[in-house]
Amino acid sequence: MSGAIEVYRNSVQTWECDQMGHMNVQFYLAKATTALNSLAVRLGLGPAFQRGQGARLLAEDHHIRFLREQHAGTPIAIAAGILDSSPEQLRVFAEMYNGASGEPAATFVANVGLFDSQTLEARALPQDALAAAEGFRVDLPRRAEPKGIEVTEPRAAPTLREAETLGLRRTFEGEVTPAMVDRHGYLNTGAYMGIVSDAYPNVFALTDGGQLEDNHGGAAVEYRFIYRARPRAGDVLTLRSAVKAVSEKTYSFCHWLFDAETGTAVATAEVVAVTLDLQARRAVPVPPAVRDALSSGLISGLSV
Question: Please, what are the domains in the chain?
Answer without folding.
Answer: 1-145 (3.10.129.10), 147-304 (3.10.129.10)
